Amino acid sequence: MSLPLPIYLLGSSYYLHTRIGGKQVKRSLRTSYQRVAIIRAIALLNGLTMHKKPDLSNLSTYELDLSRGILKADGDEDHARLMQALQAMQAVQQAQPQAPAPIAAQAPADDPTALKLAELLEKFLSLKQVKQATAIAYKNCIDELAKFLKNPPITRITASDITRYQEFLAKKENGVKKGNSIRTIDNKISIIRAIFNFAMKQSYTRNGNPAENRALLTKKQRLSGGYAIFEKEEIEQFFKSEFFKEQEAKDPDYTTAVLFGLFTGCRIGEITSLKKDNFKKSSAGVSYLVIRDSKTQAGIREIPLHPCLIEKVSDFLEKKTDKIFKYVEKEGKGTGNAVGKKFARNLESAKIEREKLVFHSLRKFVNNELMKSGVSLENRCQFIGHEIENVNVSIYTNKINIEALAAAIFPTLEKFRDLIETKKAPWEGLVTDFSELVDPM
Length: 441
Known about the structure:
Radius of gyration: 45 Å
Strand content: 5-15%
Structural class: mainly alpha
């Protein structure tokens, strides 16, 4: 710090060093404290400029150290000088510019135009075409998040808020989990991520996506943790169970839907929403389904119907004029909920206890058997309704015609016949009552 007076610190004491009347003046101020040195230097300079011989011995014998709280004086006269010095120090301190007191940072005011979560979802659904079940799933998730965060504007939602929401979903009560698996948590976070991606694209927020990179499962874990694939023995056990045979008479809607699942690999919603005009026949006589509404664009496809399936369901189909199955759409659950529940009972009755086997496992079984039989990826994807992420296939080739697809698929599906039909014993159909063959006596 530079001082306005010609003083400097040498060793442990300040010195006054200047010129007065052409003569050099250098005096020890006998203190190591800067403010005391200033006061003493002023007194010395006053005496020198008034041509008085300065007497440093009488200047001060007191001790003043405010940093350590020390104030000492020797006698009344010295005490008076101490008080003068203290007042002078206070005057110097008050004259120095003071740093302004720090002002607490104010939280930015909310943008009055910022949307709430429910408002953002409404805009999302108005511009995106999604199924009713999807819309309900989105609404349930967004409503839950808004309630948890106490409904802030979307511009106030941060990554840490999403983390707290994940912890809330995974929370255990009395050591028991609330019911949200890691997969379910990831599904909900993917909904939030989609909503905020939309908000960013439409410029409803510039704060980034708080749900970005928040997945708990890796891609490999998601793939390995999905529904299981039926084994051939389980398929045979399922279709030949007493439960399935009883339902053929009691509930043909259920058994017909399951047969469609096995021979077409269709999703349950695609099957239970079928109408009469979905059934077609090619010029070469191949029966096929036209799927016009599906979960994905690739799911909109034509599916050849194997003759075994036609044999099994022809009587059921002949009685229909419009809608094929009796199932009505339930809010948020589509038309296949009833089939899925009965399918689970069928598994239990058939004593098939392996985990993660559901109706969708039929679809996986069909695709797996086609692959093992050497059916090409292009044929499998077109039949099942999967997208092929390959420019050569998706852009530079046409769809396989229904006859060629049938020729590729049917040999594998033919093998399913033995899995669902009970084989007749060699002696069935033979005469068992020999009484008429015996010549009466």
